[in-house]
């Protein structure tokens, strides 16, 4: 099977590295950055790489993985969809599904199968230089098939991501994906940014511990990428931000009030909800045996 990654940044590069040794798989890529192409070839991430999709043999690929920002992925489909061979699989790793899903649905005579995907893995620093073959170990991988996707294509992707080290595959609709990601990812970035906007930030060096570093870790983000992700999902993210603001307001009222027992009760309820959520996940990846 021939697979082509459109983009060899952190996620695309890590996927290519993680699939080294997959039986019968030939890995190729399109990557505009010359240095990245050289590095990818040197690290045996791909067999060949081209600077643009126009130069690449897209028509020969069995699977095409769009490792681009959402709008760039949608633009790629509008420009290159006619070159994807009949029966081929098109998938992606976009953090918001709506732009690409709508672009695919707008194709009148679509001959390929589109299956949206999103690995729940990443790092603070992007680019192929930070790509690693174990990035996906223990991570969830979300798939967003609609009714037109044959089960055999879903199974094919499940096999690939299992080989990459993902813990499981979560199925969702594109709409539900974007709502949940607004809560579990985008809202976390809003919180981290808001914490770094508070007046005590620079006066607190030397006082920060693991909780502060964890809470603000993702604030050192790529502004252009995250502006695009926020904007594509802005209504849902705004609603969740309003809900979070209301929850914070409740804590503020408890702290300013005179009822310590009410505060203890609220802390207990919230803590118990977190513990119940953690029980859904099973053992932590670090405690999962490498071999069974």
Could you please describe the fold and organization of this structure?
By secondary structure, the chain is of the alpha/beta class. Helix content is 47%, strand content 13%. It has ten helices and eight strands. Strands 3-2-1-4-5-6-7-8 form an eight-stranded mixed beta sheet, covered by helices on one side. β7, α5 and β8 form a beta-alpha-beta unit. α3 runs parallel beside α4 and α6 crosses α9. The protein is elongated and about 70 Å long. It starts with a strand and ends in an 11-residue tail after the last helix. The C terminus is likely disordered.
In short:
The chain is α/β, with parallel strands linked by helices. The chain is 47% helix and 13% strand.
Structural class determined from secondary elements = alpha/beta
- Number-wise, the strands total 8
Radius of gyration in whole Å, from Cα?
A: 21 Å
Main β-sheet description:
8 strands, mixed
- The termini sit apart by 29 Å
Helical content class? 40-55%
The low-confidence runs, each spanning 5 or more residues with pLDDT under 50, are 285-292
% residues in beta strands: 5-15%
Cα shape = elongated
List keywords for this structure.
8-stranded mixed beta sheet; 292 residues; disordered C terminus; alpha/beta; 10 helices
């Amino acid at each position: 099977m021939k697979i082509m990654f459109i983009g060899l940044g952190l996620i695309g590069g890590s996927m290519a590295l993680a699939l080294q040794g997959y039986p019968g798989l030939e890995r190729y890529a399109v990557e505009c950055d010359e240095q990245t192409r050289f590095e990818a070839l040197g690290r045996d991430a791909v067999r060949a790489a081209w600077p643009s999709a126009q130069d690449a043999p897209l028509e020969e690929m069995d699977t095409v993985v769009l490792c681009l920002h959402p709008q760039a992925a949608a633009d790629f489909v509008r420009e290159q969809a006619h070159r994807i061979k009949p029966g081929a699989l098109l998938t992606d790793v976009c953090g918001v599904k709506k732009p690409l899903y709508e672009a695919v649905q707008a194709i009148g005579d679509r001959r390929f199968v589109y299956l949206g995907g999103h690995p729940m893995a990443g790092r603070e620093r992007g680019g192929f230089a930070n790509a690693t073959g174990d990035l996906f170990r223990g991570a969830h991988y979300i798939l967003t098939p609609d009714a037109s996707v044959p089960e055999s294509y879903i199974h094919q992707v499940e096999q690939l991501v299992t080989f990459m080290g993902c813990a499981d595959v979560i199925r969702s609709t594109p709409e539900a994906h974007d709502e949940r990601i607004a809560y579990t990812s985008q809202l976390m970035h809003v919180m981290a940014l808001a914490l770094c906007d508070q007046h005590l930030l620079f006066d607190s060096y030397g006082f920060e511990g693991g909780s502060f570093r964890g809470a603000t870790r993702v604030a050192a983000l790529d502004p252009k990428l995250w502006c695009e992700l926020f904007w594509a999902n802005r209504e849902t993210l705004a609603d969740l931000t309003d809900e979070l603001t209301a929850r914070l307001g409740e804590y503020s009222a408890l702290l300013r009030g005179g009822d310590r027992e009410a505060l203890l009760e609220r802390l207990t309820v919230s803590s118990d909800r977190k513990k119940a959520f953690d029980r859904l996940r099973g053992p932590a990846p670090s405690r999962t045996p490498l071999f069974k």
